[in-house]
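Subject: Sanity check before I submit

Could someone independently write out the structure tokens for this chain? I want to compare against mine line by line before I put it in a report. The sequence has 269 residues.
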Amino acid sequence: MAKNSSSPTSNGSSSTSLKEVKAMQRERRRQVKADARAQRRARRASSGPGVISSVKQIYGITREAQPRTPLYLAGTALAVLLVFLVIGLLLNNWITWLLIGIPFAVLAAVIVLNRMGQRAMYGRLEGQTGSAGAAISQLGRGWIVSEQPVAMNPRTRDVVFRAIGRPGVVLVTEGPSTRVARLLQKEERDLRRFLPGVPVHVVETGRGENQTPLPDVVRTIKAMPKKLTANEVATVDKRLSAITSQRPPIPKGVDPMRARPDRRGLRGR
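---
Independent answer below. Compare away.
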């Protein structure tokens, strides 16, 4: 009679090997899930804060500057709802129109919060080094804004920032007019020498005479008449970049970037 070639020892080793394979598979699945979670967290971190967290951030800043912010937002939402309610009563279908008005009421409150948040941000920045640069960083598409000042007085910390757009070159100053005049004159003279025919505008930020308050800087610049095409704007930027690269760096100890706002948070993205 033929003997069975398999033995208890071999059966035990096969069972052990199978358990080890299953354990390895479970461990591999756990590792894959952990890697996927890590990738999702990295994507969320790189994409910045979400809409809800951005709104919360703006709300906190605004309420700190204006304690009546909740009343203003509630009043805005209720006013919009009242309009939709009146329309619904006139059409004899007030429930449907009231439901339609809810998202519009929320949208109106968010818009008001965004406007109030911008003013609160400018209130925080006013008087800080780099506030003018922070203001013009909100110009948006179509503008090339210098992240660093194009001129600076290290002793007084008066600075001049530059923005290039279809109106031409805009110099935005930060500091008293009498002190910043020398920086401004030199910069204007260089621009007119290197860029003949290109309009040069000046916006002095501040609360003094003939100065523009920080919250009105962007509106003032955007209201300027357009003189250049998009291609000419790019050409002007390249020429100025070549000239600026030959200048000495900003003195140490002055960080004009510290007043930069959270643009994504202000847009509610």
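---
OP: Matches mine. For the report I'm noting this point. The mean pLDDT is 80.
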